[in-house]
Every structure is written in structure tokens, then in C-alpha cells.
Amino acid sequence: MSALLAARTHAIQPFLAVEVAKEAARLQAAGRDIISMGIGEPDFTAPPPVLAAALRAMEAGHTGYSAPAGLPALREAIAAFYADHFGAPVDPGRVIVTSGASGALLLAAMALVNPGDEILLPDPSYPANQNFIASAGGIPRLIPSDAARRFHLSAQDVRDHWTPATRGVLIASPSNPTGTSIADDELRALIDAVRQRNGFVIMDEIYLGLSYDHAPRSALRLDDNLIILNSFSKYFHMTGWRLGWMIVPEVLVAPIERMAASLAICPPSPSQHAAVACFGTEALDIFEARRLAFRQRRDFLLPAFDSLGLDVPVRPDGAFYIYTDISRHSDDSSTFAARLLHEAGVAAVPGIDFGPAHAARSIRFSYATALPQLEQAIERMRPLCR
């Protein structure tokens, strides 16, 4: 049967964060107490106003198909949120609601990537991005970045690595796994370099709401023709509701909506009705309090990691990840992560998940876990880090 598999199945890379979570679950089932600093899932869940809206929608029978691009009320609420919170006025007609940010990535790849097209990504970056490109027949090209560039692609990277086969770039700010944002001047230069080569920019803003050291501002302020991806999973804490969105240039709305109608029919209707309540004052106040809780966790962990000899090359300013350099303790992040899990009972993700450039000496820790557990995790790690 394996001979019948499509060639693309061999190009799909494993998602080690999920594998770490599966091993942690196996240990927990066997009676071990495991603290999760691995998978990027908030410990917070949808707040009461959102749950109440979901219940009302289901009781009213609003569980059928919606339009492929999503409920008009939700598209309007997302557009207003971008104007009010991210400094980027958006026509609601350019907002397409999707089945998670994964659905948005799939649609973006299918709409823009031809077989054989190269797409530039930074190394390190979110591993599944490569798989979405490969699913459309494209070729993901990881470009090594470093702390001096805050682990992002630069305009110089575009100039140095663009080839006749290159079609565009896929970037994120704040980033997974580093939690770092791209400065406006750097981002503007990168976008200009891509535009000069008639390429596209897919911009992942999934963690934009979780910015800590500056007001969040969308890349749409710099260029209105980007393909923006976002999600209800991180800032809005609705991971299992499978809801996201994309903001696209007007010329892409009709073709993407046409594909969405066939590939997904529509995003989950109960989730959409519930998500409208995310933008009410009561829910936004809750999300803001939770954002501050994430910032408190980051501010606890940074000096704690320093005390363990886990270096942080660039201070994260967003998301809920810290990308550490473990060189003082090991030159094999996979082995070190396995020891953390099995000896200390702390789950974290080895650097190989995010690209080869820093794989051996890097580990990503997630602080999407309550502060008391993080404090306990640090103490569990001390014997291993001596």
C-alpha cells in the first residue's frame, strides 16, 4: 500500500511538539506528574461571555452551514478589532473566516503556490508552515537567521536567497518559537525587497494580541496588500473551537472564497457565533487580564532561566515562548529535552522542530502554563542544570 502514497507524503515533516505532548501524556497515564512547557496551548479557556454565546447559538439552532467566508457579523467584528487594536482599518469584505489558522494557511498556500515554487522562511520558524507549502507542491526554503536579526528574515536575506523559482515569503511577528517581533523599519525593508521581485508576503499575526513591551500594530499599516493570518486559538484561548481568519487583498477574495467552499464548505458555525462575543467589552477585559498574566510568567522565567544557565539570546516581546540556548549544558537538544521530560518531569520542545540552524543547542519553552507550575518546573530543572 505504501507504494500508492503520493510523493508529497514523504515531504511532510514530523511535528515534534505534538510528539513531545504524546510522550508526556503517556507518562502521565502511567502515574508521572508532568509539567507542560511544550505545546503552545493556553491554559486559559474561552471566557464566560463566549461560552454563553455558544450556548445561545446552539439552543437557537444556529448550527447549520454559514457562508464559506464566514458570518458577516464576525467578519465585521474582526475588521473593527484590527482598526481599534492593531492600527489597521480593514474592509470586512477582505476578511475570510477559516477553520483555524491552519485553514487559512492551507487556503493561502493553495491560492498562491504553484508546484515547484520556492517560499522563503526563517530558520527557526513554526514547523507546520513547511508542510502547508509542500501540500501545495511548493518548496519551503529555510534561511538561517540569528540573534542579531532577532531570528527573523531580513531584506538582505531576500536579496541574497531569491532565485528565479522563488515566489514569496512566509513570516511571523511575534514568532513561534522565539516570541520576538520584527521592528517596523526591518519589516518595511523586507516587504519592499519582496515587492521589488514581484513576490508575495504571507504574514502570520497569530500572536500579535500577545505583545508585552509595545502596542501591537499590524503589518497592514505598512502595506495593504499582504496576506494576513490570525487565529482565535492564542489570544482568544479557543484552541479546540478551530477558528481563524485571513485578511487578503480584494483581488484574492473571490478565488479564496471559491476554494473555501469546496475544501471546507464553511468554518464551524457554533464557533463563529460564539466568537462574535470575543469582541465585547466584558470578554476583551478578560483577555487583557490574561495577557498581563502571560507577561508576568515571562518576567518570572527570564531571570529563572538565567539562574539555570539557560541563555536567552533575544528577549521575547510577545507570544508565550522562550527560545533558549542550552550550550552550557549540552550540545544535543533532543537528548537534553528527553532528560528534562523523563528525569525532571518537564516537557519542552527540542530545537530540531524549528529548523536545523540552531537545532543542536536550542530548546523552546512555552509559558502557557500557570505560574505556580512554572515555579515548580524551575526547581525540578535545577539538579539537571547544575
Automatic annotation (TrEMBL):
Cofactor dependency: pyridoxal 5'-phosphate
Organism: Corticimicrobacter populi
Protein name: Pyridoxal phosphate-dependent aminotransferase
Listed Gene3D superfamilies: Type I PLP-dependent aspartate aminotransferase-like (Major domain)
Gene Ontology BP terms: amino acid metabolic process
UniProt-listed SUPFAM superfamilies: PLP-dependent transferases
Protein family according to the UniProt entry: Belongs to the class-I pyridoxal-phosphate-dependent aminotransferase family.
Keyword Ubl conjugation: no
Annotated Aminotransferase class I/classII large domain residues: 33-380
Keywords assigned: Aminotransferase, Pyridoxal phosphate, Transferase
GO molecular function: pyridoxal phosphate binding; transaminase activity
